[in-house]
Amino acid sequence: MKASVVVIFFGVFLTCTYAAKEATKKIKKAKLYIPQIDCDAKAGKIINPEFIAKCPPGCQDVKYRVYGTDIYASFSSVCGAAIHSGIIDNTGGKILVQKVAGHAGYRGSFSNGVRSLSLPRWRESFLVSEGKPRKGVTYPSTLEYSSSKSTAVKPEPKKPEQDLKALKSAGTSNTSEKALEQGDTGRKGDQTSPVPTPTIQLATTTPTPTSTTTDPFTTTPKPTTTPATTRTTTAAAAAKSRPGLQHRVRDIGQVQAAQGRGLNTAFRGTSTSASNRNILRPNTGIQRQEPVAAFRRPAGSPAHLAMETDLWKPGLSLFDTGFASKEDLNPKPLEATSQGNPSCKVDLSFLMDGSWSIGKRRFQLQKQFLGNVAQALGIGSTGPLMGIVQYGDDPSTEFNLKTYANPKDLRNAIEKIPQKGGLSNVGKALSFVNKNFFSDANGNRGGAPNVVVVMVDGWPTDRVEEASRLARESGINIFFVTIEAAAENEKQNVIEPNFVDKAVCRTNGFYSISVPSWFGLHKIVQPLVKRVCDTDRLVCSKTCLNSADIGFVIDGSSSVGTGNFRTVLQFVANISKEFEISDTDTRIGAVQYTYEQRLEFSFDKYSTKQDVLSAIKRISYWSGGTSTGAAISYTSEQLFTKSKPNKRKIMILITDGRSYDDVRVPAMAAHQNGVIAYSIGVAWAAQDELEAIATDPDKEHSFFVDEFDNLYQFVNPLIQNICTEFNSQPRN
């Protein structure tokens, strides 16, 4: 009897406990309200660092501008970016938005019916993903806007909560094991031989969203070493296991080495053509046979890295994961710092070809060449500085600009570099250098031109055009040294025809050198040094932000008023602060006009950004009539006749009314003298005059707004237009 009572009591207790837990769960599951945003809502105007929102239908429209690919500048349309990335379509839907730090460059592309634009840099970025709440994160039901407006709350039934999928990181994938060194191996193949595949570890951490100023493109993934797997299969057997694999054997030594290691090797070209460089090289007449020697990869080599992929973290880039870096290689200089050659002050990065195609002997020739270049340059603190990035499947920094400050130590360090192996992914290497190498932390000096010299055996195994364009837009001067370029019967294997012209800073021959044989590489040491030190011809150091003389022409007439005039000055300051201002970079001048004209300050008056911004703030309101035509003529004479020859002359005119005099003739004269004119009209400004003042096409160079308080809307489009126009200049 007692036992029965106990059992009944215990059963009732469990039932009550279960019911209580279920009731608690129901209480905890609060309904999530999703705020709705407009198609033109920009991430930069929303204060919340992470939020879920609902986009309306119809946002796939060219008027909703998007800047970037995968990661977007914060003044992009949020819903437009979501359509571009494929998260939603034109019918709208829920999205998750996460703010991240600014980026040095945004790549435009066409995706899902939306054309995104490129941008050199911006202060803040954002990511978009599926509109599912992340576990442990509380999302706002009302969004905070910088303009103090808030969204209306529209209740929406909550679907079952799911964890946010880990953001995919470009460059992080299952990469194949690199083949070991084989003396002088065959040329690069279009495919790799994945033997074996390293393990990829996926982490599913859930970070707390926070705002950060960390550059998201400097994060280096933590490597996890995986021991190499030894195989005893012969090279011949390995080749048979891959039908259709094309071989181009350079010499008998590579076959012996392959048999000794029994690893698959990717080759490029065919073995059937009589002109293929099989055992004897026609251009040298010598047999290239290498001794069979064991080659041991260093621990932690990129071939044995297993990369970790996390959910988004502040500071983590979608583009950089998968790159192995060696920034910890910072040995103390063995000798005193050299002053170097002061007539050649450049910051120089060599992209060293570590692919298997060049073989052991030619890799040694490449190292000798780089050592000779370091000696000829005269490396030193007040002269050129040199770092090296080696690339194969992935790039890695061997040492940066500040690691060595004298030629002897630099040459010794070069001699100790082991070969990476893999393919010749030049595009990936250029992207890596653009995002990571030329930073203050790596010794970039700012005032010295940035130069990249790409060494490539034959041809790259990936595309270089887009990565090169972004690097050039960042101010990097790209040189190519191509050794043993593709023969006529090999050109069918080249992934990107004319890749050199698509990559280099200019296509006039100055930035490219072709060498017929690795054994003739020593002959170009002095010609290359002379070119990289010719700073007057390093034109890609000039970007849209550091190579202009910008003259503001400001309407000070009575109709403007004191308050609105201060708003105009703030607009001028907001534009100016986006540029790199100095004596050698962008310079700013200003003219105010009524019936008369007054030079507020000339191009050579102020050489720092702070001084320019202070001078703009001090401009006093004049008041009077509106003679815009006379003001254009005055500005052309007083400002732009004193512009430097290598500067782009840009005039930005702001007015609120129709001019008392003719604007067409003065504007035409300015255009003929090379002045690029932008006209910005407010309130009563005449549209026909704005178009006459603006450079053709006038639709891209003239703007109109009904109120002074809305002038801020034109800051970003104006800068974007200036940069787009700059980047579209011919490269011949």
UniProtKB/TrEMBL annotation:
Localisation: Secreted, Extracellular space, Extracellular matrix
PROSITE patterns the UniProt entry points to: LCCL, VWFA
Xref: Pfam families: LCCL (PF03815), VWA (PF00092)
Bias-annotated ranges (Polar residues): 139-151
Alphabetic keyword roster: Disulfide bond, Extracellular matrix, Glycoprotein, Neurogenesis, Repeat, Secreted, Signal
Region forming the signal peptide: 1-19
Primary location recorded for the protein, binned into one broad class: secreted
Functional summary from the UniProt entry: Promotes matrix assembly and cell adhesiveness. Plays a role in spinal cord formation by regulating the proliferation and differentiation of neural stem cells.
Protein name stated in the entry: Vitrin
